[in-house]
Amino acid sequence: MKFLFFSLFALLSFQWLAAQTDTTKIDLVFTDASRMEVLEKLEEVSGYHLFFVEEWLGNDLISGSYQNSSVTTVLQDVFKETIINFFVLDDSNIILTRNTIIRDELHPSFHEGTTSTQEDTTELSEAPSYFYLEEKQDTGPDIETVRIGRERKNIGRQTFTLSGRVRDKTTGKPIQNLAIVVKGGSKGVSTDANGFYKIELPAGVNLLQTKGIGIETLEKRIIMYNNGQLDFNPGESAEQLDEVVVESNRLRNVEKVVTGVVEIDIAEIKSIPLVLGERDILKTAITLPGITNAGEGAAGYNVRGGGTDQNLILLDNAVLYNPAHFFGIFSALNPFTTGAVTIYKGSIPAEYGGRLSSVFDITTKDANTKKFSGEASLGPVTSNLVLEVPIVKDKSGILVGGRTTYSNWILRSLDDESLRNSQASFYDVIAKYNDRINERNNISATAYFSRDAFSITSDSIFSYSNRLISLKWNHQINEKNSANVSLSNSEYGFGIDFENNSDRDFDLGYRINETELKLNLLKLAGKSHKVSYGLSSKLYLVDPGDIDPVGSQSIIEPLSLQREKGLESALFISDNFTVSPKLSFDIGLRYSFYAALGASSQRIYEAGLPKSEGTLVEVQEFGNNEVIKTYGGPEGRVSGRYFLTPDFSVKASYNNTLQYIHTLSSNTTVSPTDTWKLSDINIEPQRANQVSLGLFKNFDDNRYELSLEGYYKRSKNILDYKVGAQLLLNESIETEVLQGEGKAYGVEFLLKKKEGRLNGWLGYTYSRSFIKLDSEFPEERINNGEYFPANFDKPHDISLVTNYKLTKRFSFSANFVYQTGRPVTFPIGSYFLDGAEYALFSDRNKFRIPDFYRLDLSFNVEGNHKIKKFAHSFWNISVYNVLGRNNPFSVFFVTEDGSLQAFKSSIFAIPVPTITYNFKF
């Protein structure tokens, strides 16, 4: 073995030699050999002497087989995936170099008095060669020198791309919005949400620095020979400052091209006072403009006048059908395991489809790959524990979290005597594995399960559950192209177990299952275009319900409705491109295709007449996977942004969407027994078109954000139900539903103060949502075929969320909500039949329940801020509904003992105090 240690003078002295022609032919075979072993064999069979430094070669194992091949051919193959170059000095010596190449002639411009012509430049079209000798400095910190890439002749480029990822040195978590700048220059970039960066650097020596508040500053000397990768791993900054303000994307709300996007800061929600001290991501969402629900305790969400079934809620790319615990009082999402929440309510990206109104894209954070860590909370009703365990340090880890309830006292405080004797319990668990295989590949896998069980009466137990699993592979193809593949499966089901020791005991169940495979590719086409494209396919399996008798005395007849099956597929492409420094667009196109599949029995009704048993013509039978009916069409997604000033922009968008799955529910809000129905011969997919226009402005050095956005939406084939409809276990459900038109419009205002002792936001929404069910047949016409308010139509919605810092450890928070009462149908008269009084009701949703308002207060205590201690703690002392407002949840009327009685129900009619202890280690 030979080593080459020579000075720059000796290396230059060889350059007068002309490159030798390699005419030696050899036979060489090696299997799973190190490069060191290969070079030793090569010296034996070729007669060449190789000069190199052994540490350059690494420990990778390679294989190869060569017959009558030149030495240069073998060396090119051996070093093709490395940064090693070689130079044939003469017929017996070969020199290996790292990064650089040895040239056997000088560029004409090197000679004094010689002017390089265009022809000369073209002939020797290559970046200049750079040599760097490290010089020992007497004073000052040492700067690490990193050589990037493998120098090549005739490459024809003066700049190269450096990319990589920035992770915290201690936790291994990606650091976003960290600046990476060229020292002494004006060039720089910032890391994205996953810690990735990419920067163009000139060939040769560059000094790079990382800069971020609270983050250690790193400085490296980078020598660019070609494109390459470099990761940074800074730690936390230990500087003592009067105040540390961490800001990310200060102008993001103004700069972002797409409209109607909401991003929730997970750390921000810990101080918002919520019921029973439980941090709730989705409850925080409804304090923002354009997002609301039907009332306190409602599990669903209404976005820009859309129904609760028109929201696509994704947890790590898998659908979560019922995101609520305990009648909607708690979210089914664990705040300790959630990494990011992005809500699209305006311009939905082309990669998403299948819902009309919005997408809730929720991602679980990666596990800490540096050290064991965790977070926990103890409250009066629930407890939460999350652990993060490294599997292979700096490479892979697993996150496991779980929540549960251990007390039923909350039910005993509700304003309903029957509920005081009820019981309720829930839990959810989640696990995520993440593995950074190498610089170009990483994988993750998530599994989630939640279950609720409750008894509203003494003889029935209701239960429902969510289960999902998702797998994702991210691959960096090259510096301009990346791809990810995801596979997910979701299942939602509910059951009712009725046991009263009677002849009507039964067990009822329902289940929906879906599996999706999705490929998403990203291409950076030049400096102005970011193209995303791909395809997806989703298989639905719906078991509409079955009922079985319980006990030998039960007279309930067994019934199992026929399974529904559907396949929804899509192709999509979008381009986020810059026209000028002021004008940018995001234009996308999605083509979705849906097929209802057998086996199935489809009921065919006489055309032009209401669907009923009297108009049934025939029942058509379809075999397994036979296509029953197809639907589809293009979905356009267009959004644009124009800068009026650097901190003031105007945005506009157009969105059209298709939805092939529908909720069947006769309730105002989402309930555990809601079922889902696929489009088929008798039920068409829902369609919607939305336009929006908004102004976005920042003030006072970005301390304040102001936005004003308006929208208008038209819908078709919106599902509603006939009076007295029977939806559960109905074999001819199409006879109970109606499909009509919808329209919604509104204006959203948001003022947000992001920093200072007093911070928070004020949101106001004026919105209207209407439905029209018209037909030439009276039994299919509602309110004379005129538009009427939807059940969730609430014109005015105001939310004020504030936080005031007394000191670094102590703060007050307040949350005030006001909403217009939702529409209801009231009796306007009565009539007598067989001696009993019955109500004569008004037009549907003509009246409203009283307006809703609520004030919550909390006092927050941070633990001391010592860096070296076992755990960092946080106390939250809050009072929910401080004013004791008896907000009505619903108003209803029944006939009892021959007379009409009115009833009002509410969820929380008294102040609810709570104290929660959180700690993180």
From TrEMBL:
One GO term describing the cellular component: cell outer membrane
GO MF terms held by the record: siderophore uptake transmembrane transporter activity
InterPro entries: Beta-barrel_TonB_sf, CarboxyPept-like_regulatory, Plug_dom, Plug_dom_sf, TonB-dep_rcpt-like
Signal peptide range: 1-18
Keywords annotated in UniProt: Cell outer membrane, Ion transport, Iron, Iron transport, Membrane, Receptor, Signal, Transmembrane, Transmembrane beta strand, Transport
Keyword presence, Transmembrane: yes
Annotated SUPFAM superfamilies: Carboxypeptidase regulatory domain-like (SSF49464), Porins (SSF56935)
Major subcellular location class: membrane
Domain of life (superkingdom): Bacteria
Compartments, as annotated in UniProt: Cell outer membrane
Ranges of residues in domain TonB-dependent receptor plug: 287-355
Membrane topology category: Multi-pass membrane protein
Family named by the database record: Belongs to the TonB-dependent receptor family.
Name under which the protein is recorded: TonB-dependent receptor
Species assigned in the record: Ulvibacterium marinum
